[in-house]
Every structure is written in C-alpha cells, then in structure tokens.
Amino acid sequence: MRKSVEKQKLMEILSEELMDFRGGNAIQHDLGDILIIGLLCILCNGNTFVDMEMFGELHEDLLRQFLSLKHGIPSHDTFGRVFAKLDPANLDACFSHWLGTLREQVSTRHVSIDGKTIRGSGRGWNKAKHIVTAFASDLQLVLGQLNVGEKNNEITEIPRLLDMFCVRKCTIKIDAMGTQKEIAGKIIEKQGDYILALKENHPALLADIRLYAEQEMLSQEQSLLRQQNLYAESVEKDHGRIETRQCWLMPDMSWLPQREEWPGLSGVAVIRSKRIRQSTGEESESCRYFLYSDHGMTAERFLHLQRSHWCIENNLHWALDNVFHEDECQAYIEHAAEILNILRKLCLYLTKQETTWKAYMRSKCFRCASDLRYSFKILGFDVD
Prior knowledge:
Structural class: alpha+beta
Shape: elongated
Low-confidence stretches: 1-5
Number of helices: 15
Helix content: 40-55%
Mean pLDDT: 84
Radius of gyration: 24 Å
Distance between the termini: 5 Å
Number of strands: 11
Order of helices and strands: EHHHHHHEEEHEHEHHEEEEHHHHHE
Largest sheet: 9 strands, mixed
C-alpha cells in the first residue's frame, strides 16, 4: 500500500499544523493515527469511540502499512479523551488547508448558511451542540463551521463564520434568523452578495413588501415581466406531488421606506409555491419573501439560487443524520461532538468525490465496511 501525493500532504498537515494538547508521557499515539483511524471507522459506518477501537484492532495489520501505531491501537478512552480536547477550529483549519485548492475551482460560489443541532450531544447539564455551517452547494464543500455557544445564537456567530472563508463574488443565502442589517453589511463589506429570507422577525418590513407585491406586482402581465427578466416559473414532479414555483423580482425600491437601512439592497423577491398531491388532489400554497443585493439578478437565476439553498438540508444535514447517524451518537464531553461533526463532513465530501463507482451514499458506506480497500481508496491511499 502506498500513499498518494495528496494524502501524503494530509498526513504532513496533520502532523505539522494540528496542535497537540498532550505532553510528555501522555503522548502514546500519534495524533494523525488517531484521526485517520477515526475517519476510516466513520466511512465504515462506525459511530462511537468503542467502534473506533474495535475497527483498529480488527484491521491493525493493514493499518500498520501506512500508520506508525507505535503503541498499538488507541483505546476507546484515548479516542474519547483526544476528541474531547482537540481544538475544533484548528482541526477545521487543517482540513481547510488541505482542501484549499478546491475552493478556487470556480470564480463564484453559492453559499448557504444554516444551523443544525446535534441532538445526541446534549445530556443533563450539557446543552446539545448547535453547529452553524457555511456550505458551497455548487462544490458540495463545507467552507466553515462554528459551534453556537450557550450564551450566543446564530445571529452573533454568522459574522464570525463569514470571516472564515472568502466571501468575494459569493452569493450568501441565509434563512430568516440571519436576516439582520449587520450581517447584510458584513457581506457587502466583504464584496459578496446576499439573499436573505424575510419573515415575521421584521413585521413592518414584511407587511410593506407584501402589500406592495400584492397590489403592484403579482397582478401584472407575466409575459411582459418575463421579457424584463422579472418573472420566472418552474414545475417539478417528485415524491407524488406536482409543485409550481413562480418568482417575481422587484428591483425598484423607491417605494420602500426602509431601503436605506439595508446595506447594498437592490431588490425584493417573491416566490409563490403551489403544491398538488397527486394521490388526493389536495392543494396548498405559500408565499415567501426575500431581500437581495445583486443588481444583475434575474428571476430565473433567483429561482435557481433559492432552490439550491436547500442543498445544505438535503445534501449535508440529511446525510449526516441518515448516512452517518449523527443524532444517535452520544458524544457530549467538551469538543467531542464538534470534532466528530468535522470528521463526518469530511467523510461525506470524500465519498461524494469518489466517482469510479456510481451508488448512493449509504451503498458506498456499506461497501466501505465490506471492502476495506474501498474505504482506503476514498480516503486517498493507493492500495496495491
């Protein structure tokens, strides 16, 4: 077995840049060895520190071909203690360094920001960890993540998260929680654009926009608006229902009293969704409102961008829970849940990048558990 150039670099980064909190005789196992065994175990559907110890013991002979394992396989207590004490920001920075070139593959990105609670990380006096993540939907890549502490919330953490990656030329999409003037200003300051969902947390602004849209925009001739790129429509059939989405843009802000309060604001968008359940014929309808800053925005592009926002739910959060069983993992000591969250996200990304075998994520993980050499291949180690 030999290491590929890219993964040799990963091992070098882990050994040179990852800060080891241990000292003296406490260092029995290399930090890189512990993390690589953890990554491989997660790829093979392992979910606990006991799983990691057992995985290492079962495959020790093979692991010794590319790990030092000076004192054998770490115990489950060692995995738990190390993961609890590691600095999540430092580990995330190491993986970001390793994946750094991928972030420059495109000149523009669609970045969704959203939070997820790791339910298994809460116990008694410990509140469950809530991680807010920046996810580039077009690259399927996590650009940054932060734990929202007990005394903070997403509003206070999102500006810090924006400082963790290059916002320039990105379109940042955030749910209503992050629709704040300070956050809009931060994105514009960093030369990005925003799409901010608008709900009842800004009641006066929402009421003004809803009234104008209903009276002045939604009743206009759609064909004329389409010619001006102010209207677009899409129809999808999926999961036993037909969904029609209509999008209107309102770039003229002269009627809005609060327009000067929002840095970079260039327009308001409305998306009306109509759903018909095919089995029953039941219909439902909803309207959503947004603020956006891109002066060159078109209704068709806006519809696509807003649809892609759900990638963070469908392609990231759903996979963490349903492929890697994150909510079932009872890791609640200090940083353990955050470290495991970072490792799962890396496993998710690497598994998606392995395209020689076309299959669902669950099937790939099942194959990893059944064919260990395939998991080495996903992690980047060339197996003879």
